[in-house]
Amino acid sequence: LYVDHPLGQGQSVPLSRDQAHYLFGVMRLAAGGMVSLFNGRDGEWLAEVAEAGKRGGALDCIERSAPLRLPPDLWLLFAPIKKARTDFIVEKAAEMGAARIVPVQTDYTNADRIRQDRLQAHAIEAAEQCGGTFVPVVAELIRLDRLLDGWPAGRHLMFCDESRAGQNLELEAMPAGQPWAILIGPEGGFSPSERARLESLPFAHTVSLGPRILRADTAAVAALTLWQQALGD
Ligand code: SAM
């Protein structure tokens, strides 16, 4: 169970109404029952139900059952598309071990705002379901050109471009342990000026995901898989 609360020896963790409903109503736990907790920072903790109520309750941390496992330093940058597909991208990126998920506004992106809190909740649920101890941060929507203007030194960019069939970056030949970002465009792809800029950046590597034009959500999963296979942990 994810809790937004510090975890540590002897720490008492208050439960919200929803968490109490899930643990005591759905999972049928009672006082004395044991739960695994994580908060994305302190590893995984075994906790005992100290108080079980309809509208809340409390858990006592007993012992740490796993250390914090940090994912590789990989960001997923994607242009938000329709709501359900955007949710899918965030969920899969969290499952596939992206450390940071960054919605970017490109020339052909239709969305001009996102529900960051809702997307963050999807990332938390995905981390819960795959037994992670880390939760990726879902960043604010940012314009692609602004993001590129302030690009952090040393971070590689895997620019996924459907017009580059046959061009394949040998990811395996890249040094391991370096920071990376994957960039996936919107349904309409990148504009000519964006493509020209991306191709001129010294830290960007243009990558084809094969001869078929994939939907943005499929492309995100395919790119994450390739990267994790070659450079992930
Ligand atoms: N503009 C394109 C069109 O309408 O022909 C389609 C863009 S595609 C649906 C959305 C994004 O997925 C692209 O911007 C790219 O980042 C990624 N993508 C899809 N297929 C790809 C491929 N075969 N290789 C590399 N990237 C791909």
UniProtKB/TrEMBL annotation:
SUPFAM superfamilies in the record: alpha/beta knot, PUA domain-like
Keywords, alphabetical: Cytoplasm, Methyltransferase, rRNA processing, S-adenosyl-L-methionine, Transferase
InterPro entries named among the record's database cross-references: Alpha/beta_knot_MTases, PUA-like_sf, RsmE, RsmE_MTase_dom, RsmE_PUA-like, tRNA_m1G_MTases_N
Enzyme's top EC category: transferase
EC number(s) on file: 2.1.1.193
Record has Translocase as a keyword: no
Keyword Magnesium: no
GO molecular function: methyltransferase activity
Domain Ribosomal RNA small subunit methyltransferase E methyltransferase: 71-228
All copies of domain Ribosomal RNA small subunit methyltransferase E PUA-like, residue ranges: 15-55
Protein family per UniProt: Belongs to the RNA methyltransferase RsmE family.
Protein name per its UniProtKB record: Ribosomal RNA small subunit methyltransferase E
